[in-house]
Amino acid sequence: MAQPALLIIDMQKGMRDCPVPRNNPQAEIRIAELLSAWRAAEAPIVHVRHISRTPGSPFWPGQPGVEFQPELAPLAHEHVVEKNVPDAFVNSGLERWLRVRGIEELVIVGVSTNNSVEGTARSAGNLGFRTHVVADACFAFEKRDFLGNLRSAEAVHAMALGNLQGEYADVLEASAALVRLRIG
User: Fold this and answer.
1) CATH no. for residue 62?
2) What residues does the Isochorismatase-like domain cover (predicted)?
């Protein structure tokens, strides 16, 4: 059985520079720990990069914000998926790449919990992958709800994880995600 793939979503410089308050300031540390463990186990890693279709966006091609954060940048042999919408499976070839390699289990980390992480995890679950979202290796930004009420980044994060838990994915902590690796 193939090792689970680590999907690192949108850990680009533009996310680090976002002025909107966020939660989970330790997320990048947890992601780096998981990335190091996956590399040591020679398990599959997929780096997902958002490429905006909106001129002037920090994620527009050629802007510094589109580049991966250096400490989380892919190595030459690691797979990179580019997307234009929150869901990393849409028009990216990600599903085929995983299926060809016999990968049936995904561990998802990154940003933002309620957007690209949630969108990707929903599709992964719907496509039949055993999907895990690492709560302490994701983060969200504060956001206004449909009624105009400002919700804290922690509340947005918690609701997104609640939307996923048990229906599309298992939500776990980084320490439990490491158990998913089969070392040796």
Assistant:
1) 3.40.50.850
2) 5-171
Q: Domain span at residue 102? A: 5-179
**C-alpha to C-alpha distance for 67 and 4, rounded to whole angstroms:** 25
What number is the average pLDDT over the span 134-158?
A: 98
162 within 8 A of 176, measured Cβ to Cβ: no
Q: Taking residues 9-22, what's their average pLDDT?
A: 91
> Residues 55-82: pLDDT tens digits?
888 898 888 889 999 999 999 999 999 9
Calpha distance 43→6 (Å, rounded): 8
Q: Are 59 and 50 in contact (CB under 8 A)?
A: yes
- Please answer whether residues 65 and 16 qualify as being in contact, where contact means their C-beta atoms are separated by less than 8 angstroms: no
The residue among 138, 108, 86 whose CA lies nearest residue 38 is: 108
Res. 184: pLDDT tops 60: no
In one-letter notation, the amino acid at residue 53 is: R
Task: Give the distance from CA 101 to its chain's centroid.
Answer: 20
